[in-house]
Design brief:
The chain is of the alpha/beta class and 649 residues long. It has 17 helices and 31 strands. The protein has 5 domains: 143 residues, Immunoglobulin-like (Sandwich), CATH 2.60.40; 250 residues, 7-stranded beta/alpha barrel; 60 residues; 99 residues, Immunoglobulin-like (Sandwich); 35 residues.
Length: 649
């Protein structure tokens, strides 16, 4: 006898039997042989990632990249449980070959999306369907207030009547931050030195830069975005000199430059910018680590003096360091206001080394082709940039060319806000130990180059003192400072060409500025005399000099220095040196030429000065004769008076 209702076992088997009955037609359905030979594939592309305080949403599309139609395409959201907190962790994730271990799927209704209106409808090769998946941060386990995670979607689909199988995947970085992250983009307005002296330039390259070239484009970017800008006072000095007319060197001499109007127009645009968004760097954009490694203080003093003399009023000061080291950092803190580090390798935006604070300019976002996980898309670039900024505390971009200016300067990605250098300097600082000084130095100037610069400085100073009207004196410190510019790093030939041009302006290729000729022996025949010396001006400007003379026995023979004389360019002048003798004999005299302010131009010339006693004997005879005449006259007067008295008596 059978039971009127099924027992427990029959109740459990009923659903299973029903499922088998439904599955039987599918199992019996033939699989297309052509489809069976093809593996279905699809490309999953993420186009948007939205992270709020409570949720994460990924939007994208699936494209059938295979050769067979797909049906029942599905995507599922996943996230990695590992936190990426530090800049090193984020950079490591970007360059990794696989995601971190422990990647986990999560199951919420909104975590999955079935694409298309009809799952049985075929999606032909090349066709694309959109999707959106989301999840709450609490359910996803993304509860950390400030962190970065891997997140992505996996896609599955059917092909040729087969079961669901994986067809593609995509991933990106999602970041959460309690507050928007400050981002400062700084445009540096600087150029390699080209000025030789007032109104004279090595070439017309600066005109090219401000008239449709690099500096013109950089200023366009500043005007269009209102971003922060930093200007080199050396560039301002050169453009101001160009603006009122100038000449450039040629193979045959010089010719008129053609960039006066362009220089004036560029300066006018710069002066119209708000000073609140600007700053001034050190004169000549000096290579501070190389400067700090030099044993002589002359260049450091010149940089400081020229910055003070040429920096526009109202602008904050900035010291910029390429390849920073400990000594360069200390010098930057001494010379500048904000210290900015380039090529430092430090991932934090604000660091502190001892008592010195510095801002760190970030490099380009480390994305593909170096990344095996992240395609080079706008979403992934923004995601990595946000992740690095979150880990670093902010972002500082330094641009000295139009190509280096981020395209989104005027419209930052979500989570980033515009900032100034002062805003970044107010962030918490991370302790940092800078590397020791580079050995050997890799900068713009080494100890060997220092000798050439110091010799040039001395020659310029002598030239300026001898020819004050030449204008060379106005540029002694300026050219000394420019010799150590960061622009010369790796450009030794260009640096040497500029130095050579300056050297040629202040001296002949060989020889001295001034020469002195005189007879090796001079004889005095009286108590006073003059002996001639010849001074020759070998430079291209008139000079004002004086001859200085002395002897080793001034009690016997004393030489007097004549008044300064002016000698035209390329001419010689004979100068008479007064001499006074107080006794006979031979003394050794020394004669040299110096500037009116005492700068020596020639070495001592030895001259033997001889004096005889002929003059002294002559004076004795004259005096004795005078005495005899007086006595004789007096005696004769007495005789006459006696005779007159006798006649009267």
């Amino acid at each position: 006898m059978t039971s009127p209702r099924p027992g427990p076992r029959r109740a459990r088997l009923a659903p299973l039997l029903a499922a088998l009955a439904l599955a039987a037609p599918l199992a019996a359905a033939p699989v297309d042989p052509a489809v069976a030979a093809e593996e279905p594939t699809a490309q999953v592309t993420l186009t948007r990632a939205d992270v709020t305080a409570t949720s994460v949403t990924l939007t994208g599309m699936v494209t059938n990249t295979g050769t067979v139609p797909l049906t029942d395409i599905r995507v599922a959201l996943w996230r990695s449980p590992d936190l990426l907190l530090s800049p090193e962790a984020v950079a490591g994730a970007v360059t990794a070959g696989t995601t971190t271990p422990g990647t986990a799927r999560v199951v919420e209704e909104s975590n999955r999306d079935r694409l298309g209106d009809d799952p049985t409808q075929e999606v032909p090769p090349g066709a694309t369907l959109p999707f959106t998946v989301s999840g709450t941060r609490e359910a996803l386990g993304l509860v950390h207030a400030s962190a970065t995670w891997w997140a992505g979607v996996d896609a599955t689909a059917r092909a040729g009547g087969r079961a669901l199988q994986p067809v593609g995947t995509a991933r990106t970085l999602v970041s959460a931050s309690e507050t928007p992250l400050p981002v400062a983009t700084v445009v540096e307005l600087s150029a390699p030195p080209r000025q030789v002296k007032k109104d004279l330039f090595i070439d017309d390259g600066l005109r090219t830069e401000v008239d449709g070239g690099r500096l013109d484009a950089l200023l366009d970017a500043v005007e269009g975005s209102g971003t922060t800008w930093v200007v080199d006072p050396s560039l301002l000095a050169e453009l101001e000199d160009m603006a009122d007319g100038y000449r450039i060197r040629t193979a045959d001499g010089t010719e008129a430059g053609t960039g006066a109007d362009a220089a004036a127009a560029w300066l006018g645009r710069l002066r119209a910018l708000p000073t609140g968004s600007g700053a001034v760097e050190l004169f000549g954009s000096p290579d501070l680590p190389a400067l700090a490694a030099l044993p002589d203080e002359v260049l450091r003093t010149a940089v400081s003096a020229e910055t003070d003399a040429n920096a526009p009023d109202g602008l904050a000061r900035v010291a910029v360091l390429d390849h920073p080291d400990a000594s360069g950092l200390a010098l930057a803190a001494q010379l500048g206001g904000h210290v900015v580090l380039l090529d430092s390798g430090n991932p934090h935006v604000h660091v502190r080394a001892g008592e010195v604070d510095a801002l760190v300019a970030s490099e380009e976002t480390p994305l593909v082709p170096s990344s095996a996980l992240l395609p080079d898309t706008a979403l992934n670039r923004a995601a990595v940039r946000l992740a690095l900024a979150r880990a670093a505390g902010g972002e500082l971009r330094w641009a000295d060319s139009p190509e280096a200016i981020p395209a989104d300067t005027t419209a930052l990605p979500p989570g980033l806000v515009p900032a100034t250098l002062a805003d970044l300097a107010a962030l918490p600082a991370h302790d940092w130990a800078p590397p020791p000084a580079q050995t050997p130095a890799i900068g713009a100037l080494d100890a060997g180059g220092l000798g050439r610069v110091l010799e040039l400085r001395d020659r310029m100073a002598a030239y300026a003192a001898a020819a004050p009207a030449s204008g060379v004196g106005e540029y002694v410190d300026a050219q000394t400072a420019r010799a150590a510019s960061r622009w010369w790093t790796g450009e030794a030939d260009a640096q040497s060409a500029w130095l050579t041009s300056v050297e040629q302006r202040v001296a002949l290729p060989q020889g001295d500025l001034v020469t002195l000729d005189a007879s090796p022996r001079f004889t005095m025949t009286g108590g006073t005399s003059e002996f001639p010396v010849t001074v020759t001006n070998r430079i291209q400007d008139p000079i004002t000099v004086r001859v200085v003379a002395s002897t080793d026995n001034p009690q016997r023979i004393r030489l007097l220095s004549p008044d300064p004389v002016e000698i035209p360019s390329g001419s010689a002048s004979t100068v008479l040196v007064p001499a006074e003798s107080a006794g006979g004999g031979v003394v050794s005299a020394r004669v040299h030429v110096e500037t009116a302010d005492g700068h020596r131009l020639t070495p001592d010339r030895e001259i033997a000065v001889e004096t005889t006693n002929v003059g002294t004997i002559g004076w004795v005879i004259v005096i004795a004769s005078g005495l005899v005449l007086v006595v004789t006259t007096a005696h004769r007067i007495r005789q006459v008076r006696r005779q007159e008295k006798g006649e009267d008596g």
